[in-house]
Design goal:
By secondary structure, this protein is an alpha+beta fold. It has helices spanning about 10-30, 40, 65-75, 100-110, 180-185, 270-275, and strands at about 1-5, 30-35, 45-50, 55-60, 80-85, 115-125, 140-145, 150-160, 160-170, 170-175, 195-205, 215, 220-225, 230-235, 240-245, 250-265. InterPro entries: ATP-NAD_kinase_N, ATP-NAD_kinase_PpnK-typ_C, NAD/diacylglycerol_kinase_sf, NADK.
Length: about 280
């Protein structure tokens, strides 16, 4: 078994946990390769290139931001991910720091399950596909920060048919895993992670008919910027990907594969939302 290890770069607590993982894996006889971006900080000589070299499992230490950026780097590599929480936001995480040793032993002895969660594939007019990551949580088409208080006009189509056209701050398209993230704050529905669906939630729409909608995961959405001369911003999992020019279009569909998480216990979406365990 070969395990890869990455952690939030420069984080004191994530680094402490990462060192503990390295020490304990040595006692278990597990070969660990450290992400080359942080190997020098951890003083570890055995390294790997994230998203290029294959490993059996990947341990991510940090918060949701670290995890999402790591998944983006993995691209189409379907490596099972063990999540160790060491950040302010950790809704997607499964292992708390005091549990690390026990969960590593569970991993070695096969006491785990692998859950695959759907992601979204995004195509943006004028942007090369290799520069667009798959979305784990959501895709946001929003008013550009340069426009201040102005609204944008968007037209949303589902399988080529118009769903609605509205003026507002933008729209969020989310996976079930991401339905408890930004779209939840915007009034969108929480969708069970075991349901394959896509949600779209308008942001502060002026038209009353523009309401959140839950769609089959097999649908294809198109969001077109129909504003007169104003650009919009396309954001994937919190990171700005591109500016969307007038008449520019974002096409969103279910990805051909999902992200794979190693789970040692049941992932209870509703309990986490109710208790704000993130």
């Amino acid at each position: 078994m070969i395990i890869g290890l990455t952690a939030k770069k420069g984080g004191r607590i994530p680094y402490e946990i990462a060192r503990e993982i390295l020490r304990y894996c040595e006692t278990l006889g597990i070969e660990v390769l450290v992400d080359e971006d942080i190997a020098k900080d951890l003083e570890w000589s055995k390294t790997f290139s994230l998203g290029i070299e294959s490993i059996d499992f990947l341990v991510v230490v940090g918060g949701d931001g670290t995890l999402l950026r790591t998944i983006h780097k993995l691209g189409s590599m379907r490596i099972p991910i063990v999540t160790v929480k060491a950040g302010r936001r950790g809704f997607l995480f499964d292992v708390d720091p005091p549990e690390v040793r026990n969960r590593l032993r569970d991993l070695v002895e096969g006491r785990y399950t692998i859950h695959e969660y759907m992601m979204l594939k995004i195509a943006i007019d004028g942007v090369e596909q290799k520069h667009i990551p798959y979305a784990v949580n959501d895709v946001v088409v929003a008013v550009s920060r340069y426009l201040g208080s102005r609204v944008i006009s968007l037209e949303v189509r589902v399988d080529g048919d118009i769903l609605y056209r509205f003026d507002g701050d933008g729209a969020i398209v989310a996976t079930p895993l991401g339905s408890s993230a930004y779209t939840f704050s915007a009034g969108g529905p929480v969708v069970d992670v075991n349901v394959e669906a896509i949600t779209i939630t308008p942001l502060a729409p002026l038209q009353p008919n523009a309401r959140p909608v839950v769609l089959s995961a097999n649908r294809v959405l198109e969001i077109e910027n129909v504003s007169e001369g104003d650009t919009a911003t396309c954001i994937v999992d919190g990171d700005t990907v591109a500016e969307l020019l007038p008449r520019g279009r974002v096409t969103i569909s279910r990805a051909e594969f999902g992200v794979r998480f190693v789970r040692f216990k049941r992932f209870e979406t509703y309990r986490r939302v109710q208790s704000c365990e993130f």
